[in-house]
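BUG: 3D viewer hangs when loading the predicted structure for this chain

Environment: internal workstation, default settings.
Expected: structure renders.
Actual: progress bar stalls at 90%.

Input used:
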Amino acid sequence: MNTTADRLESELLFHDEQASKRAVSFRTGRADLRFADETYLDHETWIRPAFAKLGPLMAKRVLDYGCGHGMAAVVMARAGAAVSAFDLSPGYVREVRERAGANGVAVNAIVANGEELPYPDASFDAIWGCAILHHLDLAKAASELRRVLKPGGVAVFCEPWGGNPLLSLARRWLPYPGKHRTPDERPLVAAELRPLREAFPNLTVQGFQLLGMVRRVIRSHALNGALDRVDRRMLRAVPALKNWCRYMVLMLPNG
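Structure tokens produced before the viewer hung:
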């Protein structure tokens, strides 16, 4: 069985390799560090609604938790927030710094581990994370999140969900774009949320892409838009169906 150190080393190597490949694209002009907010907010159906749960960001101190490429950090900085960001991967931290500079905003990005945050208690009004919690020891992560989040603050996370057994089979066996993962990562399931609920008793979850998950294999704007509208109606009518969704948005209010 892998130790924590083994797991963290595996995660670091995997994401540093990803960051290195992305850096080649930027150096050769095949990608651009500059982008409009909409490019990030609308690249998946759950991002814009999840961002709205952070509330107004002007003059707030916010943390991009496991920042990856740093697009969320830039969007939050453009909204007027004082943004800190961290990632386990030095390569991604370099990208965040370069992306912030290219977009004319300030982001304080550092290398850090989400299970042992280097920030003082009650540092942040809001915390954002995307596809990060399912890589972590949730008991450690929940404790650290509660520690650095100010009373009355909120953390919002977008996470792949593992409640649909058919989707789990598809994730395992079907080829699709962006199918890359570390050896230890698994989509979250309801039972694993217990440490988060203990730290944040008012935690709420919202599902996205029930039927709309077919966009992973079918690229049809019209079809996917129609399925998204059906999803919204079905999930309002039968909230329990969220367990069968592809992604879940977790809102963690501190108090």
